[in-house]
């Protein structure tokens, strides 16, 4: 099933306990169990304030993760990969490599193809009955495309020989035939899954759940060989299998493989000619290395008969180098076979069943920081987005797509099963190794601390003394994206709890316990190949299967995303799996409650059938609890009694069976003192505790009483029973458990009698407290009687406390009634009395409105009563009214402090609390009116400040002036007043800039625009400034498009100004690449505002640029002549390699793959006369010298006209004007030089040569011979592009760069002569013209004249023609390379080539 089709299962239950429920962890889990157990897993979100600190020492925490290859985790995919490995091994033995074809743009699933063909009756029947179309349909291919024929061809070519080989039929020497189809075949690289064994626990760790067991070391994988040079030396290249057990594909795939070579040739090493010793076979190589080994003679003996005679009939296996006589083989061979030969042992390798699969350990040790960096980098690179932005749904779909793919091999690492006792728990611990704060100490004692939960009183694991790592001691898990934990159930089918300390979520899938067997059946049904040789595969935590596949077969599956700070609970025998969404840190542990005991016993029976080792003895745990029943709570005691009863009944029957067999000898054995390895059943591996059968002769063996027939064949009198308890002792323990479980009934009768006594016979409070203490001591469960007892004691304590406090008359009457209804005697009832006469007196005086002088006296009289009378409250209200009115008068009076909105609101709030009267209501109305007006003005000011709609300056000034009349301090009005001040200052600054000597600079205007936009004031000048700034930016953008190349690293100002810093040596140049505009001309930001300073700096830069260039030329020209060639050239900084070009201007070397070579022929105008080599386009300027597009002068003049219309000054505009003046000046000098008679005569001569092909006098005959001898191969090379003529050279049909190659030997020069003065003048002009970032016609004219006056550089021209002709033939490759190259090598423009010297380190073949 493809990952894109993955449908998430339904969500599991999520619980959010209150703080009260959270105090009892196991009690809360028992409460939610009826609901959560139906899903198998559930998620618990602790209260928001429960956030334990992370206690791991991050700096010292180091771990080695496991390596997980995702498509090897999924069960069906692993079956397919195993099948492909076996086919690849088979074809490797045949001397070929397996190449898997593609059909319909996806790789062909050979395993599914083989399976469907077998289901349809086999290859012969499918072919005979023409069922290949049905096979294609079953494989999911669309009908009507003749795919059935393709499948038949591929099956017959690849799979059918392998299937025939497995039937045992003889198979001729064969290879997979090549198939000429449109799809490209993919060579399969074996995964070598059987070579990677399960992860072994650390040899230095003593916390493994089981003792380390002796297991063979796994064979080395291809990665091991690449890392180990000694193993790498042992690889023998060529067809066929390599070193025994490796099964690797040879690295040198260019070595030819011939199936019909002789026996000696098949042994020949590809490196045999390197040492000059002639051919060297594998045998001779081994003999040379092992001459000192006394056992080397064994290599010459037959493995069947052990003799070494008759050497001429001794065959050497190409796979393992073993020797066999031809007559010792079955069937015997009459003669030595031709080609590669494999012995029976190597041939059997293809039929060997798959070995147990397991994860391999990584070779690198990580810290949390290094692992996190690796994990985050992997996820960000994989999804091409930041890790926190990747949706969990996308990761989930991609995970299930990857695990189901046989094409994509994605490998991740998972720090799983890290022992917290060795590396430290993520929770705080009270182990004395660290001083804890009060908060840490609280979390260290919390029942939700995973170090505490397994040893709580309600947990059965607290009765196990040993620290079982992973069950009783937590394990740590450091995950990265896609790292997974496979389908499994916990050891002994116990509960598990997982807490995610931090990091990205962990995705879980769960199956309830009722569907556990259904899941196992589905996986065994779909992948029987995995379970055939590994029945306990699901206990190895190495196999996963898509939940959608399980759901399609009726298995109920749920899912959840566990976020940081959340718990996930798995219930007994609930299968679960999942994967990590990214970098995270989790901790997990097991625990067992009373309800687990039946499941634990069923698990032992299950382990006994699978012969699986136990982590602990279930009988030992049960008996240990039964030995101390007084320490068990009632629920646990009852559950232990039921479990113990079943165990005792079963043990009685088993011992009875021994007596019936006549085994009467017995001895007591303290099994708990023996190591687990010494008390395991030799048959089912169960850890024995209550009893075991042993033999006095076979002292090393014992069996449980279920397998007494499998111990040995010794006589019965040699057998004896080893037991821990007698049956009477077991019955006594069972009785004590029963007494403990029934002690609750006696206590319940006494509680009922105490709570139901009649009036006059009530018991005392002390008797009830004794009953409560007895319930706590004997750990009775929570029940209705205990709740009634606790409620009665709580009510009694409340009545005793309330009787000493002041209360109202109604409260006093209710207290008396409550005390009379209690089922116990309370002494404070008679002490509660109330004087109603005094209350009546106070009521009469309050209704007559006493004067102020009597108010305090009445309050003092009411305070002396034991009851709070309502009349006293009314008197207190009158006092509060008087105090509040006085505070209002002081605040609003002339002598009051500053009035703010806060002060007004506080007075209003205080007035609402004061009892109401006419004077209070009047004052409240006045305050409310003033507060309303102030808030209204504040709201107006707030609207103006929010800038939703800017207002004119005059409007805001009017608002501020009117608001000043209110006697309240308003913050928004003050802020608005400040904005008005800044607006006036802005207008003043604008006037100063506009009235200056020059046009304002763009930077100044941009600063004013930014300030003006932030002001909540509407100003007309701001709009004008924005238009001016926009027009300036538009002009600069247009100029940038005109000058700058695509993705140029230079700014516009840098391109327009002379390049002084860039003319330094290449080693110094890298430091100048990120120059800013402020130091382009060596000017500060303030100097760039002065046009005169820019012009002066530009002129100085011109002179400096020319001098720096001359020095750079001198340095670069010295490179080829130095003693050692330069170590690096070109823009890439790498070593010289052909083809190389030298820049016409800076004289530095450049690779042809990094920069474009000259095209030689202009596509728009092919040359009239190809022999006029000075007209060929061979100029080359490197990207450092030609920094811009170099527009024509007419385009620049149009930009200058647009610049004149701008009312803004830009530094780029000043630089453009200077550049234009420099170009026009140079153009005038160039025209003057070209108009000289000498140059004009040279140009006329060149024009004549271009229009007319001259005959070479005196060489006609010689050239004719040369043309006859060389024209034929050249014609063949150029496809007949050269046409014959009278002298063989006079006429050519130029159709491409390749057609110029025959002309190179015939090029002549110089064709014109120039005086030394003229040549110097033209070279000076050419140098200055190449420095201009402007295209001028005079530049190319001067170059032509100088070229014609020089000798043609035939070597370089020939190299250019060959390179350009080769590129034209590979148009597709060129387009691919062009898309990958940077803009440095993709830019064109005028180019020149200095061909005076050869490139450094490169030798040219003479043309």
From TrEMBL:
EC number: 1.14.11.67
Stretches assigned to the JmjC domain: 442-608
GO molecular function per UniProt: DNA binding; histone H3K4me/H3K4me2/H3K4me3 demethylase activity; zinc ion binding
Ranges annotated as biased composition (Basic and acidic residues): 1248-1277
Cofactors required: Fe(2+)
Keywords, in A-Z order: Chromatin regulator, Dioxygenase, Iron, Metal-binding, Nucleus, Oxidoreductase, Repeat, Zinc, Zinc-finger
Listed name of the protein: [histone H3]-trimethyl-L-lysine(4) demethylase
Record organism: Oncorhynchus kisutch
């Amino acid at each position: 099933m493809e990952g894109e089709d993955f449908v998430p299962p339904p969500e599991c239950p999520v619980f959010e306990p209150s703080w009260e429920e959270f105090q009892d962890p196991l009690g809360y889990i028992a409460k939610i169990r009826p609901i959560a157990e139906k899903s198998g897993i559930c998620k618990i979100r602790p209260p928001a304030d429960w956030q334990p600190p992370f206690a791991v020492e991050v700096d010292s925490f180091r771990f080695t993760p496991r390596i997980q290859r995702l498509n090897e985790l999924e069960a069906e995919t692993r079956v397919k990969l195993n099948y492909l490995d076996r086919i690849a091994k088979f074809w490797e033995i045949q001397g070929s490599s397996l190449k898997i074809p593609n059909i319909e743009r996806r790789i062909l699933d050979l395993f599914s193809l083989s399976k469907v063909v077998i289901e349809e009756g086999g290859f012969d029947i499918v072919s005979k009955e023409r069922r290949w179309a049905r096979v294609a349909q079953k494989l999911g291919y669309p009908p009507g495309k003749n795919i059935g024929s393709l499948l038949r061809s591929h099956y017959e070519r690849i799979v059918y020989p392998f299937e025939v080989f497995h039937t045992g039929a003889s198979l001729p020497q064969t290879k997979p035939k090549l198939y000429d189809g449109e799809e490209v075949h993919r060579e399969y690289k074996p995964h070598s899954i059987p070579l990677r064994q399960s992860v072994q626990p650390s040899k230095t760790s003593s916390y493994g759940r089981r003792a380390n067991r002796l297991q063979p070391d796994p064979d080395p994988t291809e990665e091991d060989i690449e890392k180990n040079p000694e193993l790498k030396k042992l690889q023998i290249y060529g067809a066929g299998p390599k070193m025994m057990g490796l099964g690797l594909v040879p690295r040198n795939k260019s070595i030819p493989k011939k199936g019909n070579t002789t026996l000696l040739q098949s042994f020949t090493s590809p490196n045999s000619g390197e040492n000059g010793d002639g051919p060297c076979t594998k045998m001779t190589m081994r003999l040379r290395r092992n001459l000192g080994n006394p056992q080397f003679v064994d290599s010459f003996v037959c493995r069947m008969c052990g003799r070494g005679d008759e050497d001429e009939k001794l065959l050497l296996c190409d796979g393992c180098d073993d020797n066999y006589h031809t007559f010792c083989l079955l069937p015997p061979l009459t003669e030595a076979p031709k080609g590669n030969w494999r012995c029976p042992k190597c041939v059997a390798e293809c039929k060997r069943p798959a070995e147990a699969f397991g994860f391999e350990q990584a070779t690198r040790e990580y810290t949390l920081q290094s692992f996190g960096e690796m994990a985050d980098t992997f996820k960000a690179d994989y999804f091409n987005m930041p890790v926190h932005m990747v949706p969990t749904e996308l990761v989930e779909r991609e995970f299930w797509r990857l695990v189901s793919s046989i094409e994509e091999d994605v490998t991740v690492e998972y720090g799983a099963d890290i022992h917290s006792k060795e590396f430290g728990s993520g929770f705080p611990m009270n182990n004395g190794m660290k001083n804890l704060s009060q908060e840490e100490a609280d979390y260290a004692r919390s029942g939700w601390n995973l170090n505490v939960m397994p040893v709580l009183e309600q947990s059965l694991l607290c009765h196990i003394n040993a620290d079982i790592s992973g069950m009783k001691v937590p394990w740590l898990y450091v995950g990265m994206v896609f790292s997974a934990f496979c389908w499994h159930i916990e050891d002994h089918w116990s509960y598990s709890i997982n807490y995610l300390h931090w990091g990205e979520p962990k995705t879980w899938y769960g199956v309830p316990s009722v569907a556990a067997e259904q899941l196992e059946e589905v996986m065994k049904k779909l992948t029987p190949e995995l379970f055939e040789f590994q029945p306990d595969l699901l206990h190895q935590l190495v196999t996963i299967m898509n939940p959608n596949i399980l759901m399609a077969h009726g298995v109920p599956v749920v899912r959840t995303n566990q976020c940081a700070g959340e718990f996930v609970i798995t219930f007994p025998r609930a299968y679960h799996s999942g994967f990590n969404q990214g970098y995270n840190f989790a901790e997990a542990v097991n625990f067992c409650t009373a309800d687990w005991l039946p499941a634990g016993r069923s698990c032992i029976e299950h382990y006994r059938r699978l012969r699986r080792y136990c982590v602990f003895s279930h009988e030992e745990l049960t008996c240990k609890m039964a030995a101390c029943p007084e320490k068990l709570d009632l629920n646990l005691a009852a559950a232990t009694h039921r479990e113990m009863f079943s165990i005792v009944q079963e043990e009685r029957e088993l011992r009875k069976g021994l007596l019936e067999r006549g085994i009467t000898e017995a001895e007591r054995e303290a099994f708990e003192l023996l190591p687990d390895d010494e008390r395991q059943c030799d048959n089912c591996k169960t850890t024995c505790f209550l009893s075991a059968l042993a033999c006095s002769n076979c002292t090393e063996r014992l069996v449980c009483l279920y397998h007494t027939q499998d111990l040995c064949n010794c006589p019965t009198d040699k057998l004896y029973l080893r037991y821990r308890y007698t049956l009477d002792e077991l019955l006594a323990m069972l009785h004590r458990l029963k007494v403990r479980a029934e002690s609750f009934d006696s206590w319940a009768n006494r509680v009922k009698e105490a709570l139901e006594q009649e009036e006059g016979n009530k018991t005392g409070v002390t008797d009830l407290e004794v009953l409560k203490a007895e319930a706590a001591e004997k750990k009775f469960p929570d029940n209705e009687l205990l709740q009634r007892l606790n409620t009665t004691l709580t009510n009694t304590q409340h009545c005793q406390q309330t009787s000493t406090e002041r209360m109202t008359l109604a409260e006093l009457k209710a207290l008396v009634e409550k005390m009379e209804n209690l089922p116990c005697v309370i002494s404070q009832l008679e002490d509660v009395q109330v004087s109603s006469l005094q209350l009546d007196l106070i009521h009469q005086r309050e209704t007559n409105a006493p004067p102020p002088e009597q108010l305090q006296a009445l309050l003092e009289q009411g305070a002396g009563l034991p009851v709070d009378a309502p009349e006293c409250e009314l008197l207190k209200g009158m006092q509060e009214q008087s105090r509040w009115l006085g505070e209002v008068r002081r605040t609003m009076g002339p002598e009051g402090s500053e009035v703010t909105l806060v002060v007004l609101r506080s007075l209003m709030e205080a007035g609402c609390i004061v009892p109401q009267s006419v004077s209070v209501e009047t004052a409240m109305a006045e305050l409310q009116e003033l507060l309303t007006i102030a808030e209204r003005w504040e709201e107006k000011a707030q609207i103006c400040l929010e800038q939703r709609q800017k207002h004119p300056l005059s409007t805001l000034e009017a608002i501020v002036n009117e608001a000043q009349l209110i006697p309240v301090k308003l913050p928004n009005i003050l802020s608005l007043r400040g904005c008005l001040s800044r607006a006036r200052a802005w207008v003043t600054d604008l006037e100063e800039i506009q009235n200056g000597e020059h046009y304002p600079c763009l930077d100044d205007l941009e600063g004013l625009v930014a300030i003006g936009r932030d002001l909540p004031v509407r100003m007309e000048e701001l709009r004008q400034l924005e238009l001016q700034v926009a027009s300036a930016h538009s002009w600069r953008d247009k100029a940038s498009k005109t000058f700058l190349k695509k993705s140029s690293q230079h700014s516009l100002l840098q391109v327009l100004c002379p390049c002084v810093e860039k003319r330094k040596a290449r080693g110094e140049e890298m430091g100048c690449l990120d120059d800013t505009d402020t130091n382009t001309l060596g000017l500060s930001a303030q100097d760039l505002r002065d046009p005169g300073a820019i012009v002066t700096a530009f002129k100085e830069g011109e002179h400096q640029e020319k001098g720096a260039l001359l020095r750079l030329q001198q340095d670069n020209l010295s490179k080829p002549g130095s003693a050692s060639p330069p170590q690096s050239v070109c823009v890439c900084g790498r070593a010289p390699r052909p083809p190389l070009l030298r820049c016409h201007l800076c004289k530095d070397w450049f690779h042809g793959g990094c920069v474009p070579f000259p095209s030689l022929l202009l596509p728009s105008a092919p040359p009239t006369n190809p022999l006029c080599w000075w007209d060929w386009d061979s100029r080359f300027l490197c990207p450092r010298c030609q920094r811009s597009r170099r527009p024509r002068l007419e385009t620049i003049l149009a930009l200058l006209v647009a610049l004149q219309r701008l009312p803004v000054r830009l530094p780029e505009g000043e630089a453009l004007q200077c550049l234009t003046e420099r170009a026009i000046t140079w153009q005038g000098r160039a025209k003057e030089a070209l108009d000289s008679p000498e140059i004009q005569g040279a140009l006329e001569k060149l024009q004549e040569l271009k229009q007319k092909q001259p005959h070479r006098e005196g060489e006609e005959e010689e050239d004719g011979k040369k043309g006859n001898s060389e024209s034929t191969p050249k014609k063949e090379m150029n496809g007949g592009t050269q046409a014959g003529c009278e002298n063989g050279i006079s006429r050519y049909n130029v159709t491409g760069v390749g057609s110029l190659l025959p002309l190179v030997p015939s090029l002549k020069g110089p064709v014109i002569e120039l005086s030394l003065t003229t040549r110097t003048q033209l070279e000076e002009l050419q140098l200055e013209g190449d420095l201009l970032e402007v295209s001028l016609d005079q530049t190319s004219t001067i170059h032509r004249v100088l070229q014609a006056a020089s000798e043609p550089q035939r070597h370089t021209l020939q190299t250019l023609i060959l390179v350009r002709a080769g590129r034209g033939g590979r148009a597709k490759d060129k387009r691919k390379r062009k898309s990958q190259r940077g803009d440095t090598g993709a830019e064109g423009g005028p180019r020149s080539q200095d061909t005076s010297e050869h490139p450094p380190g490169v030798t040219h073949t003479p043309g």
